[in-house]
Amino acid sequence: MINPYVLDGPLATAWWPPLQALEHALQGGDAAATAAAHAAVARALVEAGHADLAEAAAEAVLFAAGAWATHVGRAVELGRDVLSPPGLARAVTADLRALGALVRRDWQRESEALIGRELPGWQALGIADVRDGAASVAVERLRAAWLEAGVEQALSVLVETTRVAGAGPLARHQSYAWDGARLRGVAVPASARLDDLVGLERQLEPLLANVEAFLAGKPALATLLYGPRGSGKSTTVRGLLERYALRGLRLVELPPAHLASLGEVLEATARLPRPVVLMLDDLALDADDERLRPLKSLLEGSLLTRRERVLVVATSNRRHLVRQRRGDRPDPLDADVHAWDTHHDQLALADRFGLTITFPGADERAFLGIVRALAASVGLPPDGGREQRALRFAAWGNGYSGRTARQFVDRELADLPAADGP
Predict the structure, then answer these.
(1) Cis? peptide before 219, omega within 30° of 0
(2) Does the global pTM surpass 0.70?
(3) Are residues 351 and 377 in the same domain?
(4) Distance between CA atoms of 91 and 81, rounded to whole angstroms?
(5) Residues 287 and 163 in one domain
(6) Looking at the structure, do residues 118 and 92 belong to the same domain, yes or no?
């Protein structure tokens, strides 16, 4: 069995030990052990959702944790080529050649010859877990290179994939969330399309221009989206991924509860090779909140060593982000001449965002316009009573907003009965 130098992802898989056992059984001429190991490999492939051995090996090389993933992350962080230095390139090439020979080996024929009967093959076995579309394409390309084209093409696929997506488990995804301890890939991010945001064209124009500049490597401004709940702020940020993922944009969401981990999040994003929108959703902080300091430092750039690869976009229901109570205001007769300076510094967080976009609340007319547009976009037929139902839905629910309009259209689409009023 091969012993990889660098591409060690397969070593940690469930199918690797039974594959080793199968090789040993074949070498020793043990028919019973061969049959058991051959079946064990099949079970491991099915449990992991792999179609065959070649697909399983490609997935492990590209997206498993290990020496290669660690090296790629370090290379990305330092701005180095992933195949540097030369000795590493030779080791990677040797590993690809050996793994190619491994997946092309006719394990079924050898096992059947020893056992003396037909065995089920390892083809078309498992149903893969949800995997980002680009990741699936990369796996299939590496699999095909091993089976059809050879080591040169396999090396090309490996390098291209790592330069675009990175390596290791995070490279499978385009969207990520911080869970308090580490960055986790989001296999199925919340659906969000900018085209569904009816009536927000004026708000989207400066935001999209800012993101375009960011993707082009030009200076871009940290952005604050401010407005009432349900006005489309969070959907707008998540919709950036649907619009720009094919151009390399990645989305990292940091919940306010974990804002103290900001430095760790930035360290993790530094190992992603693509530009990142760092989403700070629903910010509302107290004036004495310790999380204010790292956030201010981030917006001033002192926490970023590679600022051009991270664009901060925050959403909030509060224009100044910091909760302010009447009792927080300094007494005009206070002898502390610096009291107002301290007060204004606490409220200055929002000023550190170079671009602030206000999202308006919806009135009845705007609400019905959103309902009509969303109903048409999902193919609902015209219905003369729909607008009255929508108004009742808003009155009995969460009022006029884009979110309420979406909820109502979803209910109409599901053909659910109308709720009774109070």
Answers:
(1) no
(2) yes
(3) no
(4) 15
(5) no
(6) yes
